[in-house]
Structures are given as structure tokens and as C-alpha cells.
């Protein structure tokens, strides 16, 4: 009556992929979750949708919140407004307007200069110089060399210190991988954020024609099929789970009987690396960055490219020569105390997290499957574990799952609900979120390994 426009939420629940009734409802959480919600609220000033989806795995969420809080708010080499601006730069590389908008608000809140938000060219030269590293880390980390590090550390009045650079690298990798989580789980913007609300008047049938053109067909459609997934005969899906468990059992038996030679293991790695290049999303259309987000980074045409394309050969990165445990961890901890410890804990929790269940089955050892997912992601980045048989990956990860993994890790902005629905159709949503935690951490560790190895080479 007063002519005031009242915002209505555009989506239902924290995720476009997971039906609202299957997420953890605020007010119905247990004591542990309640504490985490309170922590998240105290830290971020809001209970964001990332937290509401991650809380499926409270142990991981606790570690994630602790690390993010330390990176953004505790003592460290970089001033607060730089930290949020770097978060904006990193999220923008994947056109993740959800994270960009959150950090634009935080950047202004801690006294950042609004002019910087008009485009990267308005930020200080020191931050502009980080653009090249941001670009390569996000899309082709295997190209980073000690020369790139030297340029950042030696540019006279705009030079970075080693400690500042470590802080920046951890922030960049944190937000690249968080963009993967945001797209991989279909995180919806909160009602007060851009894209989170509409002012359209409610129509008689509860949604109007503009909803339909935007792909939203009302709440009923989302809940029509079980678990919000593509309708599929339950026997077919159950067979899928049984078949996967049977393969795990057979692989374990083969492992116990014979071990492949080092040469054979190396060949299998190269084969898997080559094959991973031919996994591409069926929805492989170019997604153009909106001007709103793309102004925060340079060279908008630069994106993910498989490393062996165009006759370019990238030497395999052998974990035996440079690993997180033996090299990266101590370098980070030395130059930015406590962060190495926090990251290490987060990697371990994601990698070892298990409830010993698979879909409807209990008391299942899932370590083989988790390792296959982690090592497949590292394989896509050219990283090899000498003691792993890469032949297991093809046995355990089917094509639709590989398409999902590669899209979320390499070009997250192209992830669709169809991709999310088409893998592991009989599994719980919490298990699919668990997969995303593995993708986030394996991706972050891969980026860090390339950057830290280049820094180590520069230092020596």
C-alpha cells in the first residue's frame, strides 16, 4: 500500500542443487553445529550459505572457519584491506560474483578505497603486479617459475616481501578453491546479496512467467524427483553403488596379490594424465565474464588449458621431489607462522574424513575411493605419486564423475545442476558435499605446491 518494494528470495535454501528440506535447518542443528554457526556469525557478521552447506561435515567446517578467520583477520604480513582485495581478485578469476560481492562489502568495511573497486588498474601497482600470479595459479599453475617470483620480490618501490607473498599466495589459492566449492555445490546468494532477491510481485500461481524464463519452475519441480536428482530407476542406481563397491574389493585383492613395476606405474600415470585432457564438459560453451566481475582482473581471455596441448610439454611434478609434508608446510610456517599448521590440519581432515558409509551401505572402508579422487585431481595438474597405481582411477571414477570433477576444479563457473545430478545418483547430498571438500583441498594443495616450489627455487 505504501509502494515499498519488498524483496523476495530468488531461491529456496542455501543451494540450487540440494533441496532445502535436505539441508541442515537452522534451529534444528545439534550443539556442535550450533557452536559453529555462532562462530561463523561472529566472524563474518552473517550466517552465509557456504557455512550452511559445509555444516554437513562439522569437523571440516570448524577447521575451515579457523583457517579463513586467521587469514583474513588475525595478525599477518598484509593489511586487512589488501587481504579482502586479493580475495576479490582471486574469486573474480572464476567469475564468482557470490564471493566477489561478499568481499567488496568486507573491503569497504575495513576502510578500503572504493576507487580500487572500479577496476584493477585503480589499485596500487603492488596489487596490480600480483595479477599475473593470480592468473597462472587459477588456470595453469604448472607454468609458474622462480622468475615470476623474482619479479614480484625485486620490483623496487612496489616489491613484495617473502612473508607478504606467502600470505598473498595462500589467500589466492584459498579463494580459487572456495570458488570451486561455491559453484560445485550450487551455492545461492543470500537474500540481501546481488542475485539473491527479486522485487517481482507474487503471481496467482506463486511464480510468474519471468521465473520460468530464468529456469526456475517453482518449488514443486525441484522436489519432484527423489533427492532432487535426475529420475532414474532405483535398481539401476543401487547397481551403480554395488558395482563400485565390488570394484573396490577386486582392486584391494589385486593389490594384495601383485604390485605393478615402477615403469608400469609411470606409464599408467602418463596415460591417465593424457586421458584427463579429453574429459570435457558437455556444456562446454564459453561463459563470458560480466563486466562487473571482470574489471577485477586483467586478460579475461586467459583460462584453463590442458598442459600437453599445442605441443607444450610440462615435466611431471613428482611429489617425491617436492611435497607439502616435507617442503611446503615448513616454508609456509616459517614465513607466516601458524598458517602451515592450519592448512595441514585442513588438508588432513578433508583427505581422511569418513563415516564408513557409501549411500545405503555401512561399515565401508572408503579410503581407496578418496585417494583416487585426490590423486586424479593432482594428476590433472601434472602431479604424480610414485607409489600410486593410476590404473585404479579408471576403475573407480566413471566418466560423468570425471566430467564433474574436472569442471569444478578447472572451470568451476561452467558447473551445472545436470552435472551434479548425473554422478553418484544414489548417494546422499552430504556425500556429494564431501566430494567437493576433497576437490577444494586437493586443488588448493596443487596450486600451493607449484607456487611454493617456485619460491623455494628462488630462495636457493
UniProtKB/TrEMBL annotation:
Catalytic activity of the protein: a hydroperoxide + L-cysteinyl-[protein] = S-hydroxy-L-cysteinyl-[protein] + an alcohol
Keyword Transcription: no
Localization terms from the record: Cytoplasm
Record bears the keyword Ion transport: no
Keywords linked to the UniProt accession: Cytoplasm, Oxidoreductase
A GO CC annotation given for this chain: cytoplasm
Protein name as annotated: SESN1 protein
Naturally occurring in which organism (per UniProt): Drymodes brunneopygia
Biological classification of the source: Eukaryota, Metazoa, Chordata, Craniata, Vertebrata
Gene name per UniProt: Sesn1
Amino acid at each position: 500500500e505504501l509502494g515499498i518494494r519488498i524483496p523476495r528470495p530468488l531461491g529456496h535454501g542455501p543451494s540450487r542443487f540440494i533441496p532445502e528440506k535436505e539441508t541442515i535447518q537452522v534451529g534444528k542443528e545439534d550443539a556442535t553445529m550450533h557452536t559453529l554457526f555462532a562462530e561463523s556469525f561472529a566472524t563474518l557478521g552473517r550466517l552465509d550459505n557456504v557455512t550452511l552447506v559445509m555444516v554437513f561435515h562439522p569437523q571440516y567446517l570448524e577447521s575451515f572457519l579457523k583457517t579463513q578467520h586467521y587469514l583474513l583477520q588475525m595478525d599477518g604480513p598484509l593489511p586487512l584491506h589488501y587481504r579482502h582485495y586479493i580475495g576479490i581478485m582471486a574469486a573474480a578469476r572464476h567469475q564468482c560474483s557470490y564471493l566477489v560481492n561478499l568481499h567488496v562489502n568486507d573491503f569497504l568495511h575495513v576502510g578500503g578505497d572504493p576507487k580500487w573497486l572500479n577496476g584493477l588498474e585503480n589499485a596500487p601497482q603492488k596489487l596490480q603486479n600480483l595479477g599475473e600470479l593470480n592468473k597462472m595459479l587459477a588456470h595453469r599453475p604448472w607454468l609458474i617459475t622462480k622468475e615470476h617470483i623474482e619479479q614480484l620480490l625485486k620490483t623496487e618501490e612496489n616489491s613484495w616481501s617473502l612473508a607478504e607473498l606467502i600470505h598473498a599466495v595462500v589467500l589466492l589459492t584459498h579463494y580459487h578453491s572456495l570458488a570451486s566449492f561455491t559453484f560445485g555445490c550450487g551455492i545461492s546468494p543470500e537474500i540481501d546479496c546481488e542475485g539473491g532477491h527479486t522485487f517481482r510481485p507474487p503471481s496467482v500461481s506463486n511464480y510468474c512467467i519471468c521465473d520460468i524464463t530464468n529456469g526456475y519452475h517453482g518449488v514443486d519441480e525441484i522436489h519432484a524427483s527423489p533427492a532432487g536428482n535426475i529420475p532414474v530407476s532405483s535398481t539401476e542406481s543401487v547397481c551403480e553403488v554395488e558395482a563400485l563397491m565390488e570394484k573396490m574389493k577386486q582392486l584391494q585383492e589385486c593389490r594384495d596379490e601383485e604390485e605393478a613395476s615402477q615403469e608400469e606405474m609411470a606409464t599408467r600415470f602418463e596415460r591417465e594424465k593424457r586421458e584427463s585432457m579429453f574429459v570435457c564438459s558437455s556444456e562446454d560453451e564459453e561463459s563470458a565474464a560480466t563486466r562487473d566481475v571482470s574489471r577485477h582482473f586483467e586478460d579475461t581471455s586467459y583460462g584453463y588449458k590442458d598442459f600437453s596441448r599445442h605441443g607444450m610439454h610440462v615435466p611431471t611434478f613428482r611429489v617425491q621431489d617436492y611435497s607439502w609434508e616435507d617442503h611446503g608446510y615448513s616454508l609456509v610456517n616459517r614465513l607466516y607462522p601458524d598458517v602451515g599448521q592450519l592448512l595441514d590440519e585442513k588438508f588432513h581432515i578433508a583427505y581422511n574424513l569418513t563415516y564408513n558409509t557409501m549411500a545405503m551401505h555401512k561399515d565401508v572402508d572408503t579410503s581407496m575411493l578418496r585417494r583416487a579422487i585426490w590423486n586424479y585431481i593432482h594428476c590433472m595438474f601434472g602431479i604424480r605419486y610414485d607409489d600410486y597405481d593410476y590404473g585404479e582411477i579408471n576403475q573407480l571414477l566413471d566418466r560423468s564423475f570425471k566430467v564433474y570433477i574436472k569442471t569444478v576444479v578447472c572451470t568451476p563457473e561452467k558447473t551445472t545442476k545436470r552435472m551434479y545430478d548425473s554422478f553418484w545418483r544414489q548417494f546422499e547430498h552430504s556425500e556429494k558435499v564431501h566430494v567437493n571438500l576433497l576437490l577444494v583441498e586437493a586443488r588448493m594443495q596443487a596450486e600451493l605446491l607449484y607456487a611454493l616450489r617456485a619460491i623455494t627455487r628462488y630462495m636457493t
